[in-house]
Structure formats: C-alpha cells, structure tokens
Amino acid sequence: MSMLNRFRKSGGFTQLIVLLESCDEKQKQLLHLIATEDPGWAHLVKLKVLTVDKILNWPNSVLQEITPHIPDSLHLSLLLSFNQTPQQDKWLQALPTMRGRDLRERMTHYKENPQEAVSASIKLIQIIRELETEGKIVFKNFDPSLVVDHRLVA
Asked: Most CB atoms closer than 10 Å: which of 13, 119, 132, 137?
C-alpha cells in the first residue's frame, strides 16, 4: 500500500499538509517519499505548506490579525529573532506600541536556541491553520497560492 493512499480521500490533502507543517526534522523525508510516489502531489504540497518566511511576507493587516492569537510574546520573539529579515521589522511595526517594545526587549536579551524557534514556528503555523479553519483569515484574500483546490487533489 502506498503512503499516499490514506491521504487520497476527501480532506486528505489538507491533512497531509498539516502533518508536514507539524514536523520539522522528518519533513524532508516525507516530502521525498511523496515525490517518489507522486511528483505532482509533492510539488503541490511544497507550494501549499505554510512556512515562517511565507507568513512574514503577508500584509501588515494580516499580521495584525494573527498577532493577538499568539498566546505568549516569547513565541513571537523567538520567531522574529531567528528570522532576521526586513519582514521582521514589518511585523514589529504592525504590533501595538507596547507589545512591539516588549518583543524588541526580549529579542535583545534572548540567547538563541534553535529548538525553541522550531517549536515556536510550529505553534504559529498551527494557530494560523486554526484561524483559517474558523474563517478569521482567508488565504485567497492575501496569498492565493495557499488555497487548496480540492478538485486538483481528489
């Protein structure tokens, strides 16, 4: 039985994406397995999987919508301290003044721990998936490349 058979049911493609988003170290192995069975699905999955880089490129209004749902400033400071990009400043500017100051302070005193950053990334992606499921954010409004057309993956 192929690995992909269990995901070729209704909603299975989305389950596969969520599975890949929730694992860091095994993600490459899983993508390789998918590619050996179905290169088309592997390509599509890579396009649809959320990453922190994709999230940091979203408009400020979306980042402002997501931020209140991140339960701890530590998670956000971990994410931003490990993603030193111009988008980092964009997210900090999208925050309310007090929270932005708090995050900058945490980031300057934080000792880097890559495992914590990975954990924070996975948590952020889970929060975003929940917001999307609840309809609080809609990918087609700001990043249509993340929308899954279930007719293509059935």
From this structure: 13
| Tokens 């971990």 sit on residue | 78
In angstroms, rounded to a whole number, what is the distance separating the alpha carbons of residues 13 and 29?
17
DSSP string, 82-96: H--SHHHHHHHHHS-
CA distances from 46 to 3, 93, 121, 122, 148 (A): 17, 29, 17, 16, 12
- Give residue 149's identity as a one-letter amino acid code: D
Q: For the chain, what's the residue count?
A: 154
**Could you tell me which of 120, 116, 148 has the C-alpha nearest to residue 132?**
148
Per-residue pLDDT tens for 93-143?
777 777 777 777 777 776 667 777 788 888 889 999 999 999 999 999 999
Query: What's the predicted TM-score (pTM) here?
Result: 0.80
SS3 2: coil
**Within 13 Å of residue 76, how many CA atoms lie on the same side as its CB?**
25
Residue from 143, 154, 126, 134 nearest 20 by CA: 126
CA distance 14 to 1: 20
Report the alpha-carbon distance of residue 50 to residue 67 in Å, rounded. Answer: 16
